[in-house]
Write a structure and sequence with these properties.
24 strands, 13-stranded mixed β-sheet, 29 helices, membrane, alpha+beta, SAC domain-containing protein
């Protein structure tokens, strides 16, 4: 083939939002939002009408301004409104109200609209050069002018209820990376352009069997030949369509999403994001945990159980574990690996009555489902999103004296058995039951070992995602070859492991940690870090992963259950100290109190935030609604006849794509732009990450602040610096080594019961040490990190050896001292002096005899000296004789 006939390589880059800073200006009749990039070279303007009391009128001219043009525009607005006095009593024409970093959305209750802005953010993680931010503070501003405001008596109560949603608790966003999709989906090439913006997912009927990749038409065009693109790269900037299931501000963006430029739109997720740096002899491997909570059928523990008619289950969380080598941070050239797992309630219509004051309310099956339609909808969605196989790890009890949890276990087993008879055998849903509570009884119980065996089998079936060809050892484990995980240049994960217990909190989090630990071994093995895929407990790497999953579990437990985890990973490893039992009791009481007294108010808040309930005139307010069942189960009040055959519970296009995911095979994007310059600002994440136009302090750089295996986990006294070495006495722990000013997590969605949970977390971290000797080390580390306002004593400046190294020095025995002195004396005699500054005479040479007699020559004595000596002898004899 001729060189000019070769197709060029196409590289896709995510477009970076050009609006990362926003200034809100106010006049009497309008709000002006001036959005710009970080370098303040590109600007856009939004104009919001304030003279409309109920409707939202937002005008976007879609024009990009320069810095000089935007200054002229502000001056013109100021001059045009100079004679007017705004509602704050300022005589100037235009007033700057607030600076922000993005628009969360717009909301209306019974009066006019409010705008919600991100006023404070914090860098929480990086994926390559893509930065992820956590929302730290927001501002909610009423849009209509007070002169035309129409008051309603219930407005302030709705505002107070909405503001009880703590947007600073575990809401995340990114300007360049799509957090609503997995890494595997983000790195997949797009297949279709879908420009419409409504909040609906791609209908399966839109994808036809003969639909080809629309990029084939572009590459077959002769333009690239005329421009001499043979064996070169063509760069495209794309904007992906977000996964609506995980967009938590979708309802807030609905009023403006169709009319605004995409750079104004900020899609936020809710859940948990944590990151740590595993230093492998100076080579930084970043481990990131991203947990995305579904906005479908979302709510609190006892008020949201089971599933609705659409197959959306309660407490559904997608957890993604990403590992990447920070040495090469480009998504196209670096080595990235990810693994996705899922948790969610049992997909059936069941509930628990919390009206009675009992610790464990009875599990009730609310609706019989003879054809398993609800579970079928749920598993059809999993096959569509993740492919095949779907592996269910059910941790619910199987045998009980009084039937309670086993009701759910029997139900999910029957459902899977029924659904599998209509599905091809190679794509069957795989069911694994493991009674975790029962297996944990007894001192010799080995729950973690059994879970590890299950996890290894399941991970080998689903595989992991790897962006480039793996670096695994030639002498790789035989089972890797058997299951064909590392056989392709770009390895894909097909299928998902779905874990559940009753609450999907304590037991589920421990099982997900074991699965994540197993997957991490394969990820590090594929990236060339480990010779094998085995990771041992009590290593710095696994302890760091355990901390991530502990934070992950605590955050999700606070959001769904109202307290932190009760049974932790250490509980099932049998390493938790007896002092942690008091903390477990406090967490149980906190969860019980939250579920009994505050869950109803939280549920109203979530329904209001997500748009499940929209206030309207003449409609009962949300606090007067007895139950929200009909808000989440619309078929219960509006029946719609289904045309699909009950035995075909899956979509045809889903089955055609198996074992791959339909969402990846038919990936869509909303915009695609051919880039002439690969270093264009709109796709240059390197420039956006390092920001050479700003002065950076090294101590404030994120790489120095992220949790580090050497600084936060490696013991002081070790000589083995490998993060994969088993520690007999584990070292520091991140949450225990921090000072009192460390920012603590506050994952409560509604801001309620956060103080008690956070306080209990502090006590928990101290009581979760492994032994008494570790306690002394931790006490010293706490003292070393105290702020400077504390009293500094001699003991704090010069701690004892016991506190630092865990060893108390003792006075040596007398025999050892004698032996030591003897060795010192031998050493002095054996070494010749080379110091010429000290006196060195013939007399000294004669005094200090040599010890090597073989090397001494016999002196030569002259006859004169001999005669003198003989004469002396004779004289001495005569003297003695006379006497």
């Amino acid at each position: 083939m001729h060189d000019n006939d070769k197709k060029p390589k196409m590289v896709f880059h995510s477009i970076i939002s050009s609006i990362q800073k926003i200034a809100l200006y106010e006049t009497k009749s309008h709000f002006y939002l001036m959005g710009s990039n970080n370098t303040l070279t590109r600007f856009r303007v939004l104009k919001i009408d304030r003279m409309e009391p109920r409707e939202l009128l937002v005008m976007d001219d879609k024009i990009e301004y320069t810095q000089y043009e935007i200054r002229d525009l502000v001056k013109m607005i100021d001059m045009g409104n100079r004679n007017r006095v705004n509602q704050r009593g300022v005589a100037s024409g235009v007033t700057k109200i607030v600076s922000s970093f993005g628009i969360i959305g717009f909301i209306r209750f019974l009066e006019g609209y409010y705008i919600i802005l991100v006023t404070k953010r914090r860098k929480i993680a990086v994926i390559g050069h893509h930065t992820i931010y956590k929302i730290e503070d927001t501002s909610m501003i009423y849009i209509p002018n007070d002169s035309i405001r129409l008051f309603h008596p219930d407005e302030q109560r709705y505002v107070k209820m909405f503001q009880s949603i703590d947007l600073s608790s575990n809401f995340y966003f990114s300007y360049s990376y799509d957090l609503t999709h997995t890494l595997q989906n983000n790195m997949a090439p797009p297949k279709h352009i879908k420009t419409e913006m409504p909040a609906r997912t791609l209908d399966s009927s839109e994808v036809t069997e003969d639909s080809d990749d629309f990029f084939n038409m572009w590459t077959s065009h002769k333009d690239w030949q005329k421009n001499g693109y043979s064996e070169k790269t063509i760069d495209y900037g794309i904007r992906s369509n977000p996964h609506r299931r995980f967009v938590w501000n979708s309802h807030l963006l609905d009023p403006v999403e169709k009319n605004l430029h995409r750079d104004w739109l900020l899609y936020i997720i809710h859940g948990f994001i944590g990151q740590s740096n595993v230093s492998v002899f100076g080579r930084s491997m970043y481990i990131t945990i991203i947990a995305r909570r579904s906005n479908k059928y979302a709510g609190t523990r006892f008020l949201k159980r089971g599933a609705n008619f659409n197959g959306d289950v309660a407490n559904e969380v997608e957890t993604e574990q990403i590992v990447h080598d920070s040495g090469v941070s480009s998504l196209n050239n670096g080595h990235f690996s990810s693994f996705v797992q899922l948790r969610g309630s049992v997909p059936a219509h069941w509930s628990q009555d919390v009206s009675k004051m009992v610790p464990k309310p009875t599990i009730t099956i609310d609706l019989s489902d003879p054809y398993v339609e609800t579970a079928g909808e749920h598993f059809n969605g999993l096959l569509k999103r993740y492919g095949s196989p779907t592996i269910i790890l059910n941790l619910v009890k199987k045998r009980e004296k009084k039937k309670h949890e086993s009701t759910l276990s029997d139900g999910i087993y029957t459902s899977v058995k029924y659904l599998n008879q209509f599905l091809p055998p190679e794509y069957h849903i795989q069911y694994i039951s493991f009674d975790m509570a029962r297996k944990n009884k007894g001192k010799q119980a080995n729950v973690m070992g059994r879970l590890a065996n299950i996890a290894n089998t399941a991970v080998l079936k689903t595989g992991i995602f790897l962006s480039l060809h793996p670096y695994y050892n030639k002498n790789q484990v035989s089972n890797i070859k058997k299951f064909h995980i590392f056989t392709k240049k770009k390895t894909l994960q097909t299928g998902v492991i779905r874990t559940n217990c009753v609450d999907c909190l304590d037991r589920t989090n421990t099982a997900q940690f074991v699965i994540g630990k197993c997957a991490l071994g394969y990820q590090l093995h594929a990236l060339g870090i480990l010779n094998s895929s085995q990771l041992e407990f009590d290593t710095d790497c696994v302890r760091m992963l355990e901390e991530l999953y502990e934070d992950h579990g605590d955050t999700l437990a606070l959001q769904y259950g109202g307290s932190q985890l009760v049974h932790r990973i250490k509980t099932y490893r049998k390493t938790a100290p007896w002092t942690s039992q008091g903390n477990d009791i406090m967490q149980t009481l906190s969860r019980y109190y939250s579920n009994t007294f505050s869950d109803q108010e939280k549920q109203h808040t979530i329904n209001l935030f997500l748009g499940s309930f929209i206030p309207k005139e003449g409609k009962p307010p949300i606090w007067e609604i007895i139950t929200d069942y009909y808000l989440h189960h619309t078929p219960a009040i509006k029946y719609s006849r289904k045309t699909k055959v009950l035995t075909q519970w899956w979509d045809e296009n889903v089955l055609k794509c198996l074992p791959y995911s339909l969402l990846e095979v038919t990936k869509t994007c909303s915009e695609i732009i051919q880039i002439q310059d690969p270093q264009a600002e709109m796709i240059d994440v390197y420039y956006d990450y390092y920001r050479p136009y700003e002065l950076s302090l090294l101590l404030e750089v994120y790489s120095y602040q992220v949790s580090h295996s050497v600084r936060d986990f490696m013991p002081h006294f070790t000589t083995n610096f490998s993060p994969f070495a088993v520690r007999v006495r584990p070292g520091r722990r991140r949450e225990e080594a921090g000072n009192k000013n460390t920012i603590l997590k506050n994952p409560s969605l509604t801001g309620q019961s956060s103080t008690s949970s956070t306080a209990s977390s502090a006590s928990s971290s101290v009581s979760s040490t492994d032994d008494d000797e570790n306690q002394d080390i931790l006490e010293f580390q706490k003292t070393a990190y105290q702020n400077y306002t504390e009293v500094i004593s001699f003991e704090t400046l010069f701690p004892s050896m016991k506190k630092v190294y865990g060893v108390q020095p003792e006075y040596p025995k007398r025999c050892y001292i004698f032996l030591y002195k003897k060795l010192v004396l031998i050493n002095k005699n054996a070494i010749c002096r080379t110091d010429h500054s000290k006196p060195h005479t013939r007399l000294l040479d004669k005094i200090f005899f040599h010890t090597d007699y073989d090397n001494i020559e016999v002196p030569i004595i002259s006859n004169k000296n001999i005669s003198i000596y003989e004469q002396y002898i004779k004289t001495d004899w005569r003297i003695h004789a006379k006497s």
